[in-house]
Design goal:
11 helices; about 325 residues
Length: about 325
């Protein structure tokens, strides 16, 4: 019977479940890290909208703005740990934005053809080696030196710099040394005690108005946050003096206790050109000298062309000296 009818047909096989891919969940994991990527972009692009009234948070962020790029490697690390494709793709956004904002800063824009070289240095009133610091500055070959935070060691700087810089003027805690004659030197009133000066440097290419300024220090406390009120008021007074300057060529040097990204200093920085930004190589970070994280020492110019900018080796100060050469 079985031979006549043949073998009965086998029952249909049940549907087999689909096998998961080799990397299940790579697009579902790491959503928190992926969400942090656009937040870091908002800080990079929208820092000027961060409120500054409470604890001067906006100024604090802008002081360390280039460091927002650390979000990129940190988010990449999170993506690798979580094995998240979503987070890895999301991190491309802050990487591109940071590169568009700061990538050009990393290029070497230094060039030859300068007429005047200047150096500024907060020498630190507690510097244990003022004579050695002065010799380092003189060895830079600068035509003009601006020193801030002079104190009891002022006489040591006078002695060490006399041979190379026959002309100098000191007002309070700031001083100017020059290879060329000085004229019309005076204190610029930005604080209750002298912290800024103005002088005419009579270079072979014509007169240049040189300002040396040390804006007031920034304080931090748990109650008030990032305290910049005194510094910001000094910046406004300095800006007023610059607006009234009759000479077309200006060099402003000194310790601003803030960066050129800080909106609170815009009254000063927006009217002048940063030598480092236009003719430097990298960020030119200057403070603290042992591990610089911010450029708070600046050389800004008007009516001349920045050709090169750089930092000098560390001295006995907690700041690095910064230098620039310009074409008049």
């Amino acid at each position: 019977m079985a031979t006549l009818l043949g073998t009965p047909p086998a029952p249909p096989a049940p549907d087999r479940p689909r096998r998961p891919g080799p990397y299940p969940g790579i697009w579902r994991r790491g959503r928190i890290a992926a969400a942090l990527a656009p937040l870091s972009v908002l800080v990079m692009l929208g820092h000027s909208r961060v409120p500054d009234r409470v604890g001067h948070l906006g100024s604090l962020i802008e002081t360390f703005l280039p460091w927002t790029g650390l979000a990129v490697p940190l988010l990449l690390l999170c993506a690798a740990v979580r094995r998240s494709a979503t987070a890895a793709v999301a991190v491309l956004l802050p990487a591109v934005v940071w590169s568009s904002l700061f990538g050009g800063t990393l290029l070497d824009k230094r060039a030859a053809g300068a007429d005047l070289t200047v150096v500024t240095h907060n020498v630190n009133e507690h510097n244990p080696h003022p004579g050695r610091t002065a010799r380092v500055l003189a060895a830079s070959g600068a035509d003009v030196l601006a020193l801030e935070e002079l104190g009891e060691a002022t006489a040591a700087y006078r002695t060490a710099l006399a041979a190379d810089y026959p002309y100098h003027s000191i007002h309070g805690t700031v001083g100017l040394w020059s290879r060329y004659p000085l004229a019309d030197t005076r204190t610029v009133d930005i604080a209750p005690w002298p912290r800024a000066l103005r002088a005419t440097v009579r270079t072979p290419e014509g007169p240049v108005a040189v300002y040396v300024a040390h804006l007031l220090s920034v304080r931090f406390s748990a109650a008030s946050g990032f305290g910049t009120d005194a510094r910001d008021a000094a910046a406004r007074r300095l800006a007023a003096a610059l607006r009234a300057e009759p000479l077309p060529r200006i060099v402003l040097m000194g310790d601003f206790n803030g960066t050129t990204d800080d909106r609170a200093l815009a009254a000063v920085t927006s009217r002048l050109r940063s030598a480092q930004e236009e003719s430097g190589a990298g960020f030119g970070l200057s403070w603290p000298a042992s591990f610089p994280v911010a450029r708070i020492d600046h050389i800004l110019v008007r009516g001349m062309e920045p050709r090169s900018a750089w930092t000098l080796p560390a001295t006995g100060s907690d700041h690095l000296p910064v230098a620039a050469s310009v074409r008049l």
